[in-house]
Write a structure and sequence with these properties.
By secondary structure, the chain is of the alpha/beta class. 47% of the residues lie in helices and 14% in strands. The N and C termini lie far apart (66 Å).
């Protein structure tokens, strides 16, 4: 006990204390209230993770300078008392030396609140979105409290929308499901899904008042859905934690891969952001193939995989593939089933498996799961097979891109029997400092034995991907 107490004191008075405080603030959704509650109740003064956002470095430097200033002031006051006998100096100096962690912690809160207020003053549109989002979140809480229905959330670096649609369309053949086909996945738009609402212009006050009124009526009336499926997105630190009010019954985590690297900077930071869903999800289903094991250590979850077939997880094996789809043999904890799906490639198999896993977790019969999978269609822009000119085939995967998804799409192209294969590859956006390495990675993955030609679109693809593909032996 004494050792633990001394360790806590050492952490509190460490020179790394400002950095720890900033990390703790991020871990508590950048909420001053939650941070102060942690500060006054923690027994260790340690954070759950050690991920540090580079964007917070100036703030840490400012706090460190303030801490040093307080310590120097305290020492100077004690010096004045010891050498010149100035009355009262010793008490004030000693108080500064003892209480400087408290002063730094509350200074951090003051800085955050001032910066946030200033940020909203110069960005009234953001303030309006935050206010409306807060109102809608309260309405979702009231809806969940008043009505009994299941919430399935989908998060992850890639494959969220396709997984969401697969889950929703499969479940929708057996129960009443509410979902949104597009990209309603941020703080303002996710609550709209629960009320089947479309987003008005932020300046359309009449539209928002009407929407909020209609939501209130929805809360009062019987809720006509058994399941709500939502997609949770993030493009910066702390945003995933904003969805904690939803309290999903099941959350599917599709992958941890480079995304929004201008804000997140490192894969560890991406993982910390995405894995915050564990803090508020009742059950978590993870894609074991695309999430490094180190990020899942010590967590309780269920998993789906195309690689690892172990007891009590969800596993699928593709036994026959064509350009029109594939046949999957799926192992569930409750048994096995076989289904012919129209999704192509490994990514398509993962979407189907995730949907089957969620359906099994919600208690659907194997027969209904198998029939439902066979009725699912590919989604526009996501590995959709289109008829080309002169008997050609187009594989449309243009919706979004990351190295993981592009390489998966190339694998599908490589597996097709064709006299000629051409890859048209565009730039991958929002990768920040990782953009160069990501485009080179894809370029190197281009196989000259499988591709007759590689065509690039966009500045980054031309600058980095094309040379890498050419170096690999491809005609570019």
């Amino acid at each position: 006990m004494l050792k633990k107490y001394l360790s806590a004191v050492a952490a509190l008075y460490s020179w790394r204390m400002p950095r720890t405080f900033v990390i703790a603030l991020r871990e508590h959704q950048s909420s001053p209230y939650k941070f102060l509650r942690w500060f006054w109740t923690t027994k260790t003064f340690r954070t759950r993770y050690s991920v540090f956002w580079e964007a917070d470095k100036p703030l840490v430097i400012l706090l460190l300078a303030g801490m040093i200033g307080i310590i120097v002031s305290g020492v100077w006051l004690l010096y004045q008392w010891a050498w010149f006998g100035n009355t009262g100096y010793w008490a004030f100096g000693a108080a500064l030396l003892v209480m400087y962690p408290i002063l730094v912690a509350h200074s951090l809160v003051a800085i955050v609140m001032f910066r946030r207020a200033l940020w909203y003053v110069v960005r009234p549109k953001k303030l309006g979105r935050a206010v409306i989002a807060g109102i809608l979140e309260l309405q979702v809480k009231r809806l969940r409290k008043r009505h009994k229905f299941t919430v399935v959330a989908v998060a992850g670096s890639v494959g969220k929308t396709s997984t969401k649609l697969a889950v929703a369309n499969l479940l929708g053949q057996n129960v009443r499901v509410l979902y949104q086909t597009g990209n309603y996945n941020d703080r303002l738009t996710v609550p709209l899904v629960f009320f089947s609402q479309k987003e008005p212009s932020i300046w359309n006050l009449f539209g928002w008042f009407k929407l909020i009124g209609e939501n209130t009526a929805t809360i009062s009336h019987p809720f006509p859905y058994d399941v709500v499926v939502v997609e949770l997105g993030t493009d910066g630190p702390g945003q995933m934690a904003e969805f904690a009010y939803i309290q999903p019954d099941i959350t599917v985590l599709t992958a941890i891969a480079p995304e929004h690297m201008e804000q997140l900077h490192s894969l560890d930071a991406v993982a910390a952001e995405e894995l915050s869903i564990f803090d508020y999800s009742k059950r978590v289903l993870v894609n074991a193939d695309d999430i490094a094991g180190k990020y899942l250590a010590g967590k309780t979850f269920e998993e789906y995989s195309l690689v690892t077939d172990v007891a009590h997880n969800y596993f699928a094996k593709s036994t026959h593939q064509t350009v029109d789809g594939q046949k999957l043999s799926i192992s569930l904890p409750s048994g096995t089933l076989t289904a012919r799906v129209k999704y192509v490639g490994r990514q398509g198999a993962k979407f189907a498996l995730a949907a089957a896993a969620v359906a099994d977790m919600l208690g659907l019969a194997h027969e209904n799961i198998a029939k439902g999978l066979e009725r699912l269609d590919a989604f526009p822009g996501r590995m959709q097979i289109l008829e080309g000119i002169g008997g050609g085939v187009l594989i449309d995967d243009t919706y979004n891109a990351s190295p993981l998804s592009v390489k998966a799409a190339l694998d599908v192209l490589y597996d097709q029997k064709a006299a000629q294969r051409i890859a048209i590859l565009g730039s991958m956006n929002e990768l920040g400092d990782h953009a160069h390495a990501a485009h080179v990675e894809v370029g190197k993955y281009c196989n000259p034995e499988k591709l007759a030609m590689v065509v690039t679109i966009g500045a980054d693809a031309e600058r980095w991907l094309a040379p890498a593909a050419k170096h690999a032996g491809c005609i570019v």
